[in-house]
């Protein structure tokens, strides 16, 4: 029998995560003061879902959620969709070390989670998005690197606060290994 790439639970999580991302990006985003760059809570959803379900889930949630959001605005900005996908992938790479599913997400795990998400945001928004904006859309470098810096900073802050709270909260709902004893 073939082993599945993803469990049904992960597929459902991808659908829920992409839907949450769409709602938050489309209806809860706040202008940042930098053109076409917003403060939105969706980055916390991507990071936490990636931390719980792994890098493939993070990648797909970000790609699907961001694409659907852009489609409702009229056109897809592929450089940012790809950057979001890379962020989800990178944020989920160390999902086993966060120990959220094991109910053991503590301060040390939170520090690792936040170091990874900050580095992932820098790679995605200061590296990939601006370069793709220049290559694909011939955007001016100073504009797109400013947008990338602002996006990386805002996303990192949202995940540091909201993402950490969500990860701690979800972890508390999980049963720790060995915590149940027979009577």
Instruction: Name the CATH class.
Output: Mainly Alpha
Helix fraction? Answer: over 70%
Instruction: Give the class from helix and strand content and strand pairing.
Output: mainly alpha
Q: Taking Cα atoms only, what radius of gyration do you get, to the nearest Å?
A: 17 Å
Q: How many structural domains in the coordinates? A: 1
Question: What order do the SSEs take from the amino end to the carboxyl end, as H and E?
Answer: HEEHHHHHH
Q: Report strand %.
A: under 5%
- Whole-number mean pLDDT: 94
Q: Uncertain runs with pLDDT below 50, 5 residues or more?
A: none
Count all strands and give the number: 2
Distance between the termini: 38 Å
Lateral arrangement of strands in the main beta sheet: 1-2
Number of distinct helices = 7
Architecture per CATH nomenclature, i.e. the level-2 architecture = Orthogonal Bundle
Query: Biggest sheet: strands, sense, closure?
Result: 2 strands, antiparallel
